[in-house]
Specification:
2 domains
Length: about 375
């Protein structure tokens, strides 16, 4: 037990120790202040001892509370450090993941851009080749059509000229032959009638005038009534041979009759020959005229076929022109689609870049904000 002289020092030491932790134990500080406010002269020993014991107990409690709080503080500091390390690791992992994803998206975008460019180039080349082929076919068909038309026109003109020349030649020949035949027939008729009249006069002089005159009149009537192409040629001129002197009249008449028979036989044979020749000539002219008509009809049919062929070629040319216009329209539409695809690709690239940048900027903030709280 301490002496009375040392009690004030003990009280001061206790009050100084209790006042060393005012923030940790506000109740003990208030009790110490109340204890210090008690006059030492009025305080009794038991009260001081009781106050000392209570102060010591309060000090022990404060120390234990301080140690407990220190342990909690260390644990919280360690937990905060672990959380900070974990947040940094997660942030690094997310950053790496986003970077890898961004690189993959960038590569995929570049690959898609290359594929689109290759496909566009292939489509453009295919359409260009097809358009060039159609243009070449169109030019070739136009040239071929012009050449065929020119060839057909020249051929038809030559054939028409040849037909017209042949027709004119045949008409001229027909006119010449007809006029020559008519002139020959008229000459033969005139000579025949003249010789018949001479023969009748000779017969009348020889005493057989009645029969010869009747025969001459019959021949003349037949010549006047028969057509020109059916008349026989005039008989050949035969000279009358007078009977020898001293011959009897009957012998002279017999020789004259024989001569007349020979002359009539030759006349009939010559007439038959001339009629046959005239018939052959007329038949030949008829065949030539029929052949010309058939040839003209054939040329007309060929002209009609060529006209139909030209119409078919014109229709084919019109179809090719329409197909060419359709291909040009398709190429223009493909170009518009390509331009729209380029614009859409640029828009998607911009949106992808903005989304990647937004995710990259948003990622660290979303993981660092909880650690700060």
């Amino acid at each position: 037990m301490s002496t009375p002289e040392s009690r004030p020092d003990l009280v001061q030491r206790v009050t100084s120790e209790s006042s060393a932790v005012p923030s940790e134990a506000p109740d003990s500080a208030s009790e110490t202040d109340s204890l210090a406010s008690v006059p030492l002269a009025l305080a009794s020993v038991p009260e001081l001892q009781q106050a000392l014991q209570s102060a010591l107990l309060q000090l022990e409690r404060e120390k234990s509370a301080r140690a407990r709080l220190q342990v909690q503080l260390d644990r919280q500091t360690q937990l905060q450090g672990q959380l900070q390390v974990q947040a940094e690791q997660e942030e690094e992992y997310i950053t790496n993941k986003l970077m890898k994803r961004l690189e993959a998206l960038q590569q995929e975008k570049e690959e898609l851009a290359r594929q689109v460019e290759v496909e566009e180039e292939m489509i453009t080349n295919a359409l260009t080749k097809k358009l060039q082929k159609v243009k070449e076919e169109k030019v070739h068909l136009e040239i071929q059509l012009e050449q065929e038309q020119e060839y057909i026109v020249n051929k038809l003109q030559k054939q028409l000229g040849a037909v017209l020349d042949e027709k004119r030649a045949l008409e001229t020949r027909l006119r010449e032959n007809t006029s020559s035949i008519l002139q020959s027939i008229q000459g033969h008729l005139q000579r025949w009638t003249g010789h018949a009249a001479d023969a009748a006069a000779a017969d009348s002089r020889l005493g057989g005038g009645g029969g010869a005159a009747g025969m001459g009149a019959a021949v003349t009537a037949a010549a006047g009534m028969a057509p020109a192409e059916d008349l026989p040629p005039p008989p050949h001129v035969c000279e009358y041979t007078a009977p020898p002197a001293g011959a009897s009249p009957s012998a002279a008449t017999a020789s004259a009759a024989a001569d007349e028979e020979r002359r009539r036989g030759r006349t009939v044979a010559a007439a038959d020959e001339e009629a046959a020749r005239t018939h052959l000539l007329v038949s030949h002219l008829t065949r030539e005229i029929d052949r010309l008509g058939e040839q003209q009809e054939r040329y007309r049919r060929e002209c009609e076929e060529q006209r139909k062929g030209n119409e078919t070629l014109q229709h084919e040319l019109s179809r090719l022109q329409a197909e060419n216009a359709g291909l040009c329209h398709r190429v223009a539409r493909e170009r518009e689609i390509r331009a729209a695809a380029i614009v859409e690709r640029a828009r998607l690239e911009t949106e992808m870049e903005l989304g990647s940048e937004f995710a990259f900027n948003r990622g660290p903030e979303s993981f660092t904000s909880p650690s700060c709280m």
